[in-house]
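Workshop exercise sheet. Pairs work together: one partner reads the sequence aloud, the other fills in the structure field after running the prediction. Swap roles for the next sheet.
Pair: D.N. / O.F.
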Amino acid sequence: MLNQIKMKNTVFAVLAGCLSATASVKTAEAQSHKSRPALFNLKALQAFVSYTDSIYTAPAVVNPLKNIHTKAILSFKKIFPAAINERWFSVEDGFMVKFIDDGTMNRADFDRKGNWLHSIKYYGEEKLLPELRTQVKQLYFDYSITLVTEIYKHGYTVYIIQLETCNALKKIRICNGEPELIEDYIKR
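Structure field:
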């Protein structure tokens, strides 16, 4: 559980540094990004993606709604009015709800006071925005898009896209329209 706390704290580091990491790649870009709020950095984003993957398998206590903060439930219903199959969980730092919205697997996290923290969608290539799909396919035309993880927090969206061929796996992130390779594996 202590590792989960550390990983949840990493979530906020992720959302606090992405632009600064992108900006540090090129001096010219760094100057243009200084006026924008810092959101994501690569190392923190990778940790967040690992955290995101692990939280689905991490121990959590399924709770009846009476044990969930009322503010979290009301916020959830307002943000996701069409959600179905919702399942609420108590996690170390608050509450998590897994649900289906528009045929897509989703997760939303809330702190102990019921404040919405972020939302995560999981879907395939067919639901990826056409302009992002085109951008990815132009860079990795031989690869299939096997999973898209869309992370949304306070008006900012980051896409983690998993790509695969018969002998390779790649994971890229797209933040502010800029793709960056974050993982690259060769199958054996």
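Discussion prompt: The CA atoms of residues 120 and 151 lie 5 Å apart. What would you look at next?
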